[in-house]
Amino acid sequence: MLVERARSEGLQLTGQGGLLQQLTKRVLESALEGEITDHLGYEKHDPAGKNNGNSRNGTRAKTVLTDVGPVEVKVPRDTAGSFEPQIVKKRQRRLTGVDEMVLSLSAKGLTHGEISAHLAEVYGAEVSKQTVSTITDKVMEGMAEWQNRPLDRVYPVLFVDAINVKIRDGKVANRPVYVVMAVTVDGTRDILGIWAGDGGEGAKYWLHVFTELKNRGLDDVLMLVCDGLKGLPEAVETVWPRTIVQTCVVHLLRNSFRYAARQDWDKVAGALKPIYTAPSEDAATERFLEFQESWGRKYPAIVKLWSDAWAEFVPFLSFDVEIRKVICSTNAIESVNARIRRSVRARGHFPNEAAALKCIYMALMSLDPTGKGRKRWTMRWKAPLNAFQIAFEGRLTPSNN
Q1: 196 in helix, strand or coil?
Q2: Cβ contacts of residue 397 below 8 Å, gap of 6+?
Q3: Helix or strand holding residue 27 (H, E)
Q4: Torsions phi, psi of 185, nearest 5?
Q5: What is the pLDDT of residue 6?
Q6: Quick check: 57 pLDDT over 90?
Q7: CB-based burial of residue 111 (10 Å sphere; 0-12 exposed, 13-18 middle, 19+ buried)?
Q8: C-alpha dist (Å) from residue 253 to 166, 178, 318, 342
Q9: Residues 138, 67: contact at Cβ < 8 Å?
Q10: Cβ(336)–Cβ(367) under 8 Å?
């Protein structure tokens, strides 16, 4: 096999005649053979195809440019001339689908070994884990460019959340990876970056992240929604003094139930609802005092939880219902996190921080392949953005000049 030849004969990995080119040729020709079999309806040399009106008619050589260099493939033909190959289309001279296939499988959470096994099973091509790693490592250049790209001058909302990943650094331990997602003035979603924390996230850590975003051109943020992350409000105030920090109400409720007995969940939920649905901060304060009087003795931890988060809880109460609906929780980023978690869980743990960030980056780049999600986002944010224009007059502009 090719891998054995590489070991015994010293076959080079890249360049003309290298291992990657030969593997690409084998994968493409196997796929093309599968396509013409589907088109004709019978396997090669199968008697069932005799006198059926159409048959194989040899091959024609074609050179396509790929990410591993020019590759010559033999494209099968049929006597009727009706075969239209898809993986290497007629007149197509540039092909990146092989690498994209590997990257797509990796983004879905498959390990390098699983990708190698998949290619062997489906295409009969022996692609080593090292070769897969070589292909996926190419995304790191794109990741560095993406992480440092210029940003818009202003964003209506930033959502900040964290994903825990297992990284083996001497021993396997959980490490937070933070994701910052923005809603643009056009109502689209934009992931601004990912950062691996060391467990000591505080004002100093967040100051570093937000300063980086400001250095990339982000001058103003209207509102920032988070899950009560330690030290975050202080860092926001240092970088963007006018930004309103809003804690996630959904997370506040979830954390409240952790301190309550299961049989009291419905009652506690009913008692808390008038607080976060109050028409004003004063009304919310009155409802909170009522909750404290009714439940404070039994669940003092819930009272303390809401008291500690009060300054970051109340801002959304000053806005109309359209703004309230989109800033009262980090739900807007949850679908992104769910996609990341699927990829992370499939890997188990990572050998280092770079491997974890690469996996998460590829998962992010594979979001919304059809573009339907982008359309839903834009429609969902039309009303809130109009409300933001009024509430933050003069700060939110229709374009980023």
Answers
A1: strand
A2: 154, 185
A3: helix 19-40
A4: -65, -15
A5: 52
A6: no
A7: middle
A8: 27, 22, 20, 25
A9: yes
A10: yes
Report the distance separating Cα 300 and Cα 332, nearest Å: 31
48 in Cβ contact with 42 (< 8 Å) = yes
Instruction: Tell me how far apart the alpha carbons of residues 304 and 297 are, in angstroms, rounded to a whole number.
Output: 11
Most distant CA pair in the chain, distance: 89
Which residue shows structure tokens 């109009």? Answer: 386
Q: Which of 145, 147, 235 is nearest to 192 (CA)?
A: 147
Place of tokens 């890249």: 14
**Domain boundary assignment for the chain:** 2-137, 145-391
pLDDT digits (tens, 9 = 90+) for 98-157: 566 677 777 666 777 777 777 666 654 556 677 777 777 777 778 888 999 999 999 999
* Beta-bridge partners for 176: 164
Q: In angstroms, rounded to a whole number, what is the distance separating the alpha carbons of residues 309 and 247?
A: 7
Rounded-to-integer distance, Cα 395 and Cα 401, Å: 12
Residue 264 carries which DSSP code?
A: G
pTM exceeds 0.90: no
Long-range contacts of 382-390 (CB under 8 A, 24+ apart): 382/187, 383/322, 384/156, 384/322, 384/323, 384/325, 384/326, 385/156, 385/185, 385/187, 386/322, 387/319, 387/320, 387/322, 387/323, 388/156, 388/222, 388/323
Q: What is the DSSP letter of 179?
A: E
CB 40 within 8 A of CB 78: yes
Please give the structure tokens belonging to residue 248. 């996630």
CA dist., res. 352 & res. 364, Å (int): 19
How many Å separate Cα 107 from the centre of its chain?
9
From CA 395, how far away is CA 124, in angstroms rounded? 58
Separation between Cα atoms, residue 193 and residue 182, nearest integer Å: 10
Which run of H or of E encompasses 191? strand 189-196
